[in-house]
Amino acid sequence: MVAFRQICWRRIAMGRFGKKRIGLLTPAGNTTIEDDFARWMPDSLRLHVNRLFTGSPRNPNTPEGLLTGLQEMGDAVEEPARLLGTAKVDVIAFGCTGGSFLNGPGYDQEIAEKISTAAGGVQTVVAARAVADALKKLGVRRIAVCTPYPEELNERLRSFYTAAGFDIVNFAYEDGGIPQDSVAEAREAALRMALGVDTPEAEAILISCTAFEGAGESIELIEDLTDKPVVTSNQATFWACLRALGVSEHIPGTGRLMSERVTA
Asked: If DSSP codes are grouped into helix, strand and coil, which group holds residue 3?
């Protein structure tokens, strides 16, 4: 009986202490980023999720409501970060692109510092910065961008990535979001937008928004059809987490960014 208990404890300890852990902060209604992370997660990692919250009733389907909600997520990020930190995670990802470029260059770092401080010093990655780092890792400057954002948020995206050194050669958006009635419909919409925004001048295609349903599943198909690298918000954020953890594994389905091994 003692030997059996020792074996059981060793297995539990290996499961608890033998894995690196990603903490994910996601907007309350966004399950897309969780699905993408779970699909890409290697056995060496575990995922723990907490919701970002806002403090006031609003209509998120209006530009004003969306911008207010994004601001409130940033303002109130410490408490969900503190709770996630109690899970002893090794890195925390802020899983909202618009919420991390909302107030221009430097706001992403402000969000990261608030999260890390609240979580007890845990290293932090932020979606908007992860996208910029991923594009730079791919060695591209001229990008075509598609989003589901209203124009008021698109203006801020353009400003952020232009300041980061990128030349946005074409831009497309569908205000009102991406169809989510079925996986097939979402993938079709992501494919249509990405192919439609591509131009000969673009060196890569960026699909922005961690709630962009179908984008993660379409990365490699779009790359095959365009012969260009594709970066999505979720793929870039996941890549940044692995890089922060020093994990170097081939991740199937993630395109050229992680086609071989994640590099620091």
From this structure: helix
Q: What is the average pLDDT value for the chain, to the nearest integer?
A: 90
Question: Tokens for 134?
Answer: 């991923």
CATH class of 2-128+234-258: alpha beta
Tens of pLDDT along 144-168? 999 999 999 999 999 999 999 999 9
Return d(Cα 66, Cα 63) in angstroms, integer: 5
- Architecture of the domain defined by 131-232: 3-Layer(aba) Sandwich (3.40)
The answer to whether the CB of 9 falls within 8 A of the CB of 189 is no
Instruction: Read off the pTM.
Output: 0.91
Q: In what helix (H) or strand (E) does residue 45 lie, and over which residues does it extend?
A: strand 45-52
CA distances to 30, 71, 143, 190 from 92, rounded to whole Å, are 17, 19, 27, 27
For residue 226 the two structure tokens come to 């365009």
The residue ranges of every structural domain in the chain are 2-128+234-258, 131-232
